[in-house]
């Protein structure tokens, strides 16, 4: 399900996350490891305010491992703890509990010092659509409690998923909107399938993807499509890919829509290998 983010929806989503903030000790901010900045909500710092937070880079299996390391270092330099996981396979979930314990250690120590009985940490997952919130909740719950595509606005009683470890997780994630303003971010979100295919011109998305591959992973581009360098004339590129992959229209010419589809599908299905589309900023 894709949510159309009108200003009213944004305000409502924000209100719902804000309301639930007081129920939890820590926020798990889920992002796509291929897009650790582009898949963040633009107002997240403002929304979660001072609440302790762990950034979870999900879909690590699809991201460039070297870049993931750099992103974790990037967050750390800014005082934000982060871990990378693969929620689909259930890899790395222990890291989440360990990091949360570390982040909340002082608070828990203070509670103990005041004679309070230690209790489980309470957490809630927030993130833009498609970053894997429901998959992670299901993995943590080890059964299908969270339905994919929860719409903001549907109210129901809060349920806590009690894990075997010392963590309780709200069963419904906070769904926040992505960054829409920057066209480059739009292309990245579209290329990875984070936003609906009808939102942007897909041919533009595919062309952006090819240029990105040329810039960042040229040998993989050459291996897959046979281009060492892309010519200025992108129509020629589409024609060559179309010929190689048999994308003919009924009239006998190249079917550009099919080629577009192939390029986007190749990125999403990891035919180019593990890619990180947000380039980690160089250290100053
Ligand atoms: P959301 O609640 O944040 O909207 O995301 P959701 O869990 O629905 O996940 C979105 C898509 O991302 C799903 O694929 C899901 O399987 C996939 N996914 C989630 N976590 C991971 C991960 O760590 N690695 C990989 N490779 N994929 C992940 P889908 O194609 O929409 O559905 P399906 O393939 O599960 O049927």
From TrEMBL:
Biological source species: Domibacillus enclensis
GO biological process, any: ribosome biogenesis
Protein name: Ribosome biogenesis GTPase A
UniProt domain CP-type G: residue ranges: 14-178
Described purpose of this protein according to its UniProt entry: Required for a late step of 50S ribosomal subunit assembly. Has GTPase activity.
Binding-site residues for GTP, renumbered to this chain: 58-61, 86-87, 130-135, 174
Source organism, top-level taxon: Bacteria
Xref: Pfam families: MMR_HSR1
Stated family: Belongs to the TRAFAC class YlqF/YawG GTPase family. MTG1 subfamily.
Keyword Hydrolase: yes
Gene Ontology cellular component terms for the protein in this record: cytoplasm
Record note on quaternary structure: Interacts with ctc. Interacts with the immature 50S ribosome subunit. 2 molecules of rbgA bind to one 50S subunit.
């Amino acid at each position: 399900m894709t949510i159309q983010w009108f200003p009213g929806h944004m305000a409502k989503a924000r209100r719902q996350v804000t309301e639930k903030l007081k129920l939890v000790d820590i926020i798990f901010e889920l992002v796509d490891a291929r897009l650790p900045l582009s898949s963040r909500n633009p107002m997240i710092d403002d929304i979660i305010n001072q609440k302790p937070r762990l950034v979870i880079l999900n879909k690590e299996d699809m991201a460039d491992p070297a870049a993931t390391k750099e992103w974790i270092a990037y967050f750390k330099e800014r005082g934000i703890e982060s871990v990378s996981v693969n929620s689909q396979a259930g890899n790395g979930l222990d890291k989440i509990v360990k990091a949360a314990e570390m982040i909340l250690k002082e608070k828990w120590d203070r509670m103990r010092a005041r004679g309070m009985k230690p209790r489980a940490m309470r957490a809630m997952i927030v993130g833009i659509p498609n970053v894997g919130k429901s998959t992670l909740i299901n993995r943590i719950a080890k059964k299908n409690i969270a339905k994919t595509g929860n719409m903001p606005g549907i109210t129901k009683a809060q349920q806590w998923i009690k894990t075997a470890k010392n963590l309780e997780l709200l069963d419904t994630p906070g769904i926040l909107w992505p960054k829409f303003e920057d066209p480059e971010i739009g292309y990245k979100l579209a290329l990875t399938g984070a936003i609906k295919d009808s939102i942007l011109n897909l041919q533009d998305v595919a062309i952006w993807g090819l240029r990105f591959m040329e810039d960042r992973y040229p040998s993989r581009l050459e291996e897959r499509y046979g281009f060492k360098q892309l010519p200025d004339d992108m129509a020629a590129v589409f024609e060559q890919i179309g010929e190689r992959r048999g994308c003919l229209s009924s009239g006998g010419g190249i079917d550009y829509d099919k080629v577009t589809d192939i390029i986007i599908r190749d990125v999403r299905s990891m035919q180019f290998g593990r890619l990180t589309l947000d380039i980690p900023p160089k250290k100053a």
